Amino acid sequence: MDKEIFEVVLNKSAQDSKIKRIIEMKSESALPTGENFTSTILKITLKVVLGNGRIATKTFIAKKGYTGEAAEQPRKENSLFRTEVSVYTNVLREMGYLMEEFGDTEGPLWCEFIHYSRADSIIILEDLKASGFNTVKRTEPQDLNHARLALRSFGRYHAMAKVLEERGLISKDGYKPYLFLYDEVYIRNFLYGSLQALIKGMRKAWGEEWTEYADKLSQVSFEELLKRIKDSGNFDDNTFKCLNHGDGWNNNMMFKHDWEGKPIEMRFVDFQVPHYNSPCMDVTYYLYSSINPTVRHQNLKSLIELYHESLTSSLERFGYKGSKPTLEDINNGMERLVFFGTWFFTSTFACVLTERTDAMDLDLIFKTNGEEGYNLSVYCEDGVIEMIGEDLKALVKLFDES
Predict the structure, then answer these.
(1) What is the b/e burial string over 106-119, where b = at least 16 CB atoms within 10 angstroms of the residue's CB?
(2) 200 - beta bridge partners?
(3) Model pTM greater than 0.90?
(4) CA–CA separation, 128 vs 157, rounded Å?
């Protein structure tokens, strides 16, 4: 078969599967209440006629910007949606080209970007569920198998980002500082405000043995917390740094599983808060926000080693010419971020774990600077002490030692 005939065959195949006309369209919420905090996620179902005349059903995801009080702060500085569109159309597109160049067949780490309407503040994306991907239930923290795949995926993502930076396709100065390290409004409202709510919940329902811990945490001022958090993320110029995903937690990951339920592929979603820093930021944020704390306690060393192997082998695979971080470098970075991770986990995990859909009222949180908007009952639920108690004691110890 010569190339002219092959060209005709391929064009016909493409036309046969192309959407020619939409017959029906309906939209519905893609997520239950309480599963997404900064966007409205819709599932768009289309009944269509394809190029070959066949009637088919196609589904897409429409992501619409949140318009409440909680969205105002980032909107004042930069549109979260414009940032996300830029990541899809620039960074992820180039990552896809990089994978093609080096014959990486593991699959992309993102969904397909289809369209952005600036006027309507809507992003249209591939529906990953149609390809067999699903999130892990938010109220059931990820197990070891999911953690291993997620950390391998972070290593690949960070390596590709670093190679693109080396090629001049990513600028380290093109991204805002990380919200949870440098934005005082977010730190006050979330990291400080949520811990104040936890302290109230401890005094209400945890018993006398926890009174001492509640008293010590209540003595921590916002200014002290702010300084500790900023210092933890202030890595020197010699540190290996790259573009971070920025919000790589359970609800922003989708997994495909084999017939035995083991995760075999993963996709990141929600690229609204990328930032440039040590990749240990993404790793810390994930480990302390998304996996079962018992799994983290028992497997932290091996999980960090797995991440480091994925990062360095991926840098090698994609032809990175610079200096690669050693395992000691990564361990030192993780140790530096223990305070940030422990504070983040103890102050927010109960809100993440609860079955309740009213754990947080984001608008009220931002209107009151974090003094209201947290449902104290989530800190009094069965299992909360067992889940976060060990890390809470470790947090108090970090303050005692400082």
Answers:
(1) eeebbbebeebeee
(2) none
(3) yes
(4) 19
Two tokens, residue 225: 């917390």
- Which among 345, 337, 341, 343 is positioned nearest to 231, based on CA atoms? 337
Q: Burial of 345 by CB count in 10 Å (0-12 exposed, 13-18 middle, 19+ buried)?
A: buried
Task: Give the largest CA-CA distance in the chain.
Answer: 82
235 φ, ψ (degrees, to nearest 5): -80, 145
Ordered DSSP codes for 45-92: EEEEEETTS-EEEEEEEEEEE--SGGGHHHHHH--HHHHHHHIIIIII
Q: Tens digits of per-residue pLDDT, 205-242? A: 999 999 999 999 999 999 999 999 999 999 999 999 99
Question: Quick one: which of 226, 238, 250 has its CA closest to 135?
Answer: 250
With contact defined as beta carbons under 8 Å apart, do 334 and 278 qualify? no
Give the angle 302-303-308 at the CA atoms, nearest 5°.
95
CA distance 148 to 142: 10
| Cα–Cα distance, 213 to 203 (Å, whole number) | 10
194: Cβ–Cβ under 8 A, 6 or more apart, which residues? Answer: 347, 348, 351, 370, 374
Measured from the Cβ of residue 358, the count of other Cβ atoms closer than 10 Å reads: 11
Rounded Cα–Cα distance for residues 301 and 379 (Å): 29
Type of residue found at 359: A
Helices (H), 242-337: 280-289, 293-317, 327-336
Q: Note the pLDDT of residue 91.
A: 97
Altogether, the residues listed in the chain come to a count of 402
- Tens of pLDDT along 98-114? 999 999 999 999 999 99
- As a whole number of angstroms, the distance between CA 181 and CA 271 comes to 17
**Cβ(286)–Cβ(151) under 8 Å?**
yes
Provide the token pair at 171: 């600028």
